[in-house]
Specification:
Length: about 350
């Protein structure tokens, strides 16, 4: 068999380990040929690819980013200024390459595209990746553990300077519309307030929580805010800046804000992410060898499994109110900026 691999959407730690997991299993165990398609779906549209052999697949386990490059190209998106039939082009180039299957490593957008490709008759297997951990159908995505570890280390560092200056540090973390990174890094980093989009928040409750700490003699506070949290009042500014300004305007507290940004996405994957990526890559290749297509590989109850792409496409996995970390956080007196 001949398979293509592409990586699409925002990069994350562990993609290269997945490429290695797919590629080496394909070549060494199933005797398949492997083609790497550059820059996500753009590469397939432009016929930009490279043949991957064992040498090309070496040294990838610990490397962040994606050696194939990525893009946010959505070939099925309606275009205002062009009537070029990109889906047809995609299918044509897939056929020209003589592929038996395309492995699409990506996030929610990629799974949507993969489902549409499947409907066009392209054999495709999706592998979920994102630091946001928001892909429906899988318990965890690689990249998340690394992002949480990085964010936690940053929060640790902010504690000491916050303490020295008796300040409130408002730290904004990534996560798109979900609060997974904020919840996990906030809890691991000992944040005093954690704000996630799923729960909503009231800025006055944040001030109350910080003042409660002040009254007990705890003179510094760490507020972790997910980027997807709304800047209340419809402000265009980032939630960390909105909140920081609001706190200073409505209290005597002194705030500083930090937006961690792409620091969370770069660098080497953790051991857990490397192993998850390797397992998912191997499992995806096994499915292909059994001619099981049109699915996304996933972790359910800690086991590798797969789900139909059309079942996954367009859904989002968000944090539930009964998440054990939310429940335990409240027991510890951590504020989520809500009424209770
Ligand atoms: O989906 C991953 C992610 O890092 C989100 O957390 C973030 O909102 C977005 O990508 C940033 O995208 P870009 O790198 O295109 O600015």
């Amino acid at each position: 068999m001949k398979i293509g691999i592409l990586t699409s959407g925002g990069d994350c730690p562990g993609i290269n380990a997945t490429i290695r997991g797919v590629g080496r299993t394909a070549i060494l165990h199933y005797n398949m040929e492997v083609v790497g398609i550059r820059k996500g779906f753009s590469g397939l549209l432009e016929n930009d690819y490279t043949i991957m052999d064992e040498v090309a697949l070496s040294g990838l386990l610990y490397k962040g980013g994606t050696i194939l490059g990525t893009s946010r190209e959505k070939p099925f998106r309606k275009r205002l200024f062009s009537d070029e039939d990109l889906p047809r082009k995609l299918k044509q180039h897939y056929d020209d390459l003589g592929l038996d299957c395309l492995v699409a490593i990506g996030g929610n957008g990629t799974m949507k595209t993969a489902a549409k490709m499947r409907a066009l008759g392209i054999n495709v297997v999706g592998i979920p990746k994102t630091i946001d951990n928001d892909i429906w159908g899988t318990e965890v995505t690689f990249g998340f553990d690394t992002a949480v570890a990085t964010a936690t280390e940053c929060i640790d560092r902010l504690h000491t300077t916050a303490e020295s200056h008796r300040r409130v540090m408002v730290v904004e973390v990534m996560g798109h519309k979900a609060g997974w990174i904020a919840l996990h890094s906030g809890m691991a980093g000992g944040a005093h307030v954690i704000l996630i989009p799923e729960l909503g928040y009231n800025p006055d409750k944040v001030i109350e929580a910080i003042n409660r700490r002040m009254n007990k003699g705890k003179l510094h506070s760490i507020v972790v805010v997910a980027e997807g949290v709304k800047s209340l009042g419809g402000e265009k500014e980032r939630p960390a800046f909105y909140l920081s300004k609001y706190i200073e305007e409505h209290s005597d507290l002194v705030c500083r804000e930090t937006v961690l940004g792409h620091i969370q996405r770069g660098g080497s994957p953790t051991a857990a992410d490397r192993n998850l990526a390797t397992l998912l890559g191997g499992y995806a290749t096994e499915l292909i060898s059994n001619r099981i297509f049109g699915v996304m590989v996933a972790v359910v109850n800690g086991q590798m499994t797969h789900l139909p792409l059309e079942e996954v496409a367009g859904k989002l996995k968000t944090v539930r109110e009964d998440n054990p970390l939310v429940i335990q956080g409240k027991k510890l007196g951590i504020s989520f900026g809500t009424e209770d």
